[in-house]
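Retro notes, structure queue

What went well: the backlog is down to a handful. What didn't: a couple of records were mislabeled last round, so from now on we paste the full input next to the output in the thread. Example, using N-acetyltransferase domain-containing protein from Larinioides sclopetarius:
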Amino acid sequence: MPVRSSNIVPKNSDAKSHYRVRHMTHEDLPQLMEIRRELKVHDVESCIDSWLTVDPQGINVVESEGGEIVGACSAIRNSEDICFMGLYCIRPKFQGSGLGIHVWNACMDHVGPMNASLNAVPGKMELYRDKSGFPIVETEFMCQKNYTSEPVDPNNLSNIIPQGVTIESVQEYHLPALFDYDFSIVGYERKLALALNCQEENSRTFVAVKNGSCIGFGTIKRTCLGAGRVGPLYADDPVVAEVLLKRLIMSMPLVTGFVMNTVSNNMTARRLLKKLAVPLKEELTRMYRKEKLSADTKKIFALYELNLAPF
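Corresponding output:
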């Protein structure tokens, strides 16, 4: 497909410096992660790689004539009628140049007539609502970013499993039940994304099983800044969620910090983070283009990905 925009001359720049917007490729990931580290964002390279496989045209980048990636934005198609927008970033030295609107527009072209949602950072809700075409504001919950640079102690969490429940490291034979369980939580199919999630390097996934059925699962991954990030973490029972969280943390001890992003109306998730002494850093406003998305948030203890998926 042709690029959305090319031969862009940013404001306040040498007119000989031209940029273009194009679809991101897997080979661009190292440069994108440089930007994310520069911005001190706890993204996971393998997770972005997986979602790019799900939607190969879902991420756009701004590239200089010399091949430098200076910005990005995503609009990942999570299903046939749902896009999720995120990863919006411009290298600090290029911010204010006017490049951002071009990569944003390319992503909106990809959204087309579909519904879309995003998480607005503090101070940007009115901009997305009034000028960017996201008029519907979520009122049931906020998305919460929780982070500590200190080690967390899994011994502060319970390891008592309800009778008949086993916690198992994910295997291929678990996947059909895991897919069905995920569908019951979010209401649409994410088989490819979940299969890739369970295969990512520097990650661990555990499944809670009872009578052959999945009743919860969770993943921990190493971020580009070296922290352990939990997500997704879903479970029918808060007790099971706590044991899953303990196992996840124990499975990845050599990390520098801990990240877990939650929904504000799951108070058990808040209590688990309090046990681990992980503070709330920022609240984001969920916004939608056409209609709200619903999910069983009482079973969502950690969001999958703040930039690439609604839940």
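Agreed that this is the format going forward. Reviewer comment attached to the example: Residues 238-251 form the longest helix (14 residues).
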